Amino acid sequence: MQEIITSTKNQRVKDVRKLAQRKYREVSGLCLVEGLQSVLRAMDQGRDVELLIVAPGLLTSELAQRRLDEHLTQFDTECLYVSDQVYASISDRDNPVGLSAVVRQSWLDLSELPVDGTSLFVALYEVKNPGNLGTIFRTAESFGVDGIILLGSTADPYDVASIKASMGTVFSLPVARETSTQRYADWCRERNLTVITTSARAPHSLNTAPWEFPAVILFGSEAQGLPEDLLEQGTLQVRIPMSGQATSLNLAVAAGIIIYTAARNRV
């Protein structure tokens, strides 16, 4: 019989809760993953699961229990069993399923992203909302994007909210981050990438744009969009044709439309 931790003041429990803060994720290189689908995706992608947190009173899914047993049989992963109350102090969900994991983050350098003739990447500059970020990851993974590039002080894809919005697809995509927009521009030029930018003033409609690959679609922040210097780097500037009264779309919605259209036009 496994010992069940019943105190929210337990040091291991407190350490797990700290991962809700970005500074602790940055220092440790770890993240907290909650929910059946996200945890299983991290496992399926071979990510380094450092710790499993289980609330036996909440874990009613037979699939989750079976996969948990399989993982513990195959890997020497530490498992922390906690009471429902302790699990609630860790979880940010209204109806937690009783399974979480502490997973090591994975980052690539730009030079490690493989590029071939049909590659499609998504680059995000100064995107601040972790929910939007996670949704873009989910969309990108769904339409076969080859990697995500985070530029500037973009939100953390390993934020609990971002992982939740991504449905765990943050673990399925190669992710690179780059603070230097010049190094990013050099990488695009050296690999002959078509840089796709979006603007209401762009010369090409999304429906008739001359798509060329390999390519990277560059999106700016929710509030400011792309600064002029990055916008001007676009070798293909496109706009979403809109006929209603709205003059703009939510970033994640706009990204979804453009990613889908680009993916449909891949050779």
Describe what is shown at a glance.
This protein has 2 domains: about 10-105, 2-Layer Sandwich (60s Ribosomal Protein L30, Chain: A); about 110-265, Alpha/beta knot, CATH 3.40.1280.10. About 35% of the residues lie in helices and about 20% in strands.
Structural descriptors:
2 domains, Alpha/beta knot, 10 helices, 7-stranded parallel beta sheet, 4-stranded mixed beta sheet, 60s Ribosomal Protein L30, Chain: A, alpha/beta, 19% strand, 267 residues
What does this structure look like?
The structure is a single chain. The model has no long low-confidence stretch (mean pLDDT 92). Helix content is 34%, strand content 19%. The longest helix has 14 residues, at 251-264. It is elongated and about 65 Å long. The strands form two sheets. The chain has a seven-stranded parallel sheet, with helices on both faces. With 267 residues, the chain is of the alpha/beta class. Strand 6, helix 7 and strand 7 (175-178) form a beta-alpha-beta unit. It has helices at residues 11-18, 22-28, 36-44, 62-74, 84-90, 130-142, 160-166, 181-190, 228-231, 251-264; strands at residues 30-34, 49-54, 78-81, 99-104, 120-125, 147-151, 175-178, 194-198, 204-205, 215-219, 236-239.
